[in-house]
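Q: I have 699 residues here and want to know how they pack in 3D. Can you give me a structure?
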Amino acid sequence: MAGGSEGPKQYGITKPLSLLGPVEADLQRTAELEKFLVEAGLYESPEESAKREEVLGKLDQIVKDWVRQLTSQRGYTDQMVEEANAVLFTFGSYRLGVHGPGADIDTLCVGPSYVNREEDFFIVLHDILTQTEDVTELQPVPDAHVPVMKFKFHGISIDLLYASVSLLVVPADLDISQGSVLYDVDEATVRSLNGCRVADQILRLVPNIQNFRTTLRCLKYWAKRRGVYSNVTGFLGGVNWALLVARVCQLYPNAVPSMLVSRFFRVFTQWRWPNPVMLCSIEEDELGFPIWDPRKNPRDKCHHMPIITPAYPCMNSSYNVSTSTLRVMMEQFQFGNKICQEIEMNKASWSALFEPFQFFEAYKNYLQVDIIAEDDEDLRLWKGWVESRLRQLTLKIERDTYGMLQCHPYPHEYADPSRQSAHCAFFMGLSRKEGVKIQEGQQFDIRGTVDEFRHEINLYMFWKPGMELAVSHVRRKQIPAYVFPEGYKRPRPSRHVNHQQQSNKNDTEDGMANRSPDSQLKRKHDSAGTDDADHVRSAKRSSVSPVHPKTSSPQSGNLGDDSQIKRASSDASLGSQASPQAYETSPDPVASGSRCATMGAVCSGDATSKHGIPLVENCATPSVAVCTTLKRVAEKVVSELVGSERLGSTNSAELLESMEKEVLAENVHFGGNGVVPGGLPEELEVTLLAHAPFFPVKV
C-alpha cells in the first residue's frame, strides 16, 4: 500500500489509501486554493459572525421562555417551572464550520417530554415568533419529512426543528450523541435529532478538522458553480457533500486541501455506484429503528447513490438521486478530475476548476417550468411546493420514456422582471440517452407525463387564486433573455479538450450535418427573447407531459424530428467543455510485450490472468499502474465473493484484503515474485475500494 506498511490509525471502515503528506508544491497549491476561496467571498466577516451569535442567543432565550410558560400553564410545581429548560443545537454547515455569508442556520430545539411538536411547537411557539420583532417570513412546514419552521431573524435565515425527548427536565449539558436520547421517541423526532448527531459524528471521524473544512468549502462552491448542489432537485446537498469529503479525508489522513480536492475526484470518478459510501460500520440497535440495509429492505436496493449517515439509525442521505442526476454528477466529476490533473501539472489554475457550467449551451431542448403567483409572499410558498416536487417530473419522464429521454434539472431559478405578477422559472435540459439507437423519426410525447405532474402540483393544500404553473418545451434558441442578466455571451472555446472533435463525433452519431460550434451558438441577446412574452402566455396550452417513445404526426406537438430531443453537435459538451468521454484518462500506450511493473506481467493480447481474464494489449504504463486487467480482476474477485455468499459476512477490511491477495496472485501467475515494491500503488487501491460492494453491519 502506498505510504508505508506500519499500522496507522484507521478513521474509517478501511485502512487509508495513502499516508503520504504534502510536498512543497502541495503546500503552495493549498495556499493558492485558500486565497482563491477568500477572494471568491466564501468567508463571512467578523461582524456577520457576531450577528449570528447574537441571533442564536436571542432565539435560545425565546425557546427557554416558551417551555417555562408551558410548564407553568400546565400546573407543574414552582420548582419544575424554575428548572424547565430547552436546549438549542446547531447542525449543517454552521455546525461543521463551513457556512458562508448569507447562509441559513440549521437549528434544533430539544424540549421536555410534555412539550409536543404538533400544538406546542407549531402553534404556541409559532404565535410567539409571529409577535417577535425582527422575525419575518415565518413559514411552518409541519408535514415535511423533517418538520420545520422557517423564518428570518434580524435578516438571518433560520430553519428550526423540534425534538421532544423522554425527560421531564432537559439538562443544559445534554449530550444528544448518546443513543439514550432516542428512547421512547417517534421517527419524526429521530430524524430531527439526526442532523445534529450526524454533524457531530462527522467531526469525530475525520483526521484533521481544518483540512476537512477547507476541502468541503471548496467542493460545495464547486458543486454550486457546476449546477450539482441541490438535494431537493435530485443532486447532493450540504450533508451529502460533507460525507463524501469526510470519506476522502479518512482515505488520505495526512493530505492537505489541494491534495484532498484532487483525490476526491480521483476516487469518485472510479466509484462503482450503488456501492455505498460510509464513514463507519452500520450499527443495529435494540431500539429497532429502520436502518439502511439493501439485503433486508427492497426499497434500499433501488437507491442509485447511497451516502450513509454515520449516526444511528444510519440512513441513506441521498435517496433523492435519480439515474439522470447521477449521470450529470458523474460527468461533472470527470470534469473536475481532468482539471485537477492539469493543476497538478501546472497547466491550469484553480479558477479553471470553478468555471460555471454553461447549462443553456449544453442541450438543444429544454423544459421550462413557470411558477406564477399574485404577490411575493404567495410566490415564496407556491415556489417551495413546486420546487419540492420537480424531482418527480424527472422521475416520471425517465419512467415513461423507459430511460431513453434523459433529464438534467438545473437547480437555479430565474425571474422575468418584465412581468407584473410574481414569477420565477426553472429549466430542465433534455437529451436522448447516449449509445442507444433510435428509430428514424421517433418522437417522445411527454404531454401526458407533464399533465400528470401538473395535476399532482395542483393538489397543494394551501393553493390560492393566482397560483399558476406552466410547463412548456423550448428549444435553445427560444430560451428567454432574462436567464442571461448580463446579455448573451458565447462561451469561449475550451483549451482543456478538443471541442470540435467531440462535436463532429456526436454529429455523426446523430446523423446530422457537421456544423461548427460558432454557427450553432450564433444568436443575439435580444433575439433570444423575441417570442418570450407570447411563449410564457401560451405555456399552459403547450404543456408537454406520460411519455412513451412513439412515432407521431407532425401536428401532434411531440418532441421529434424537427425538435429532436438529443444533443446537437456542440451540445454534447459540458458547457464550454467536452462530454465526459473526452475526460477519460488514457494512459500513454506501451509497446506490446512490455512488462507491467504492477502486475509483473507481459501485456500481450493472447495472455490471460489466473481468473481467465484476457490481458489488454498496450493497456498501461508502469507509472499509471491501473490497467483494464486490474479492474477486471477486481470485478472478478467481487463476483466470486458474491457467488460464495461471503459478502454478507465479510467486513470491509477483509474484502479489500482478499482483493489485494488476488491481485498479487496475478503477479505470481505471470512470473512475478508476488511482491510489489512499496505495496500496491495508490491508484490500484482506489480501484479496489471503488469496486467493493460490501454492506457491513455491526450488530
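Q: Anything worth noting?
A: The mean pLDDT is 77. The longest helix spans residues 46-73.
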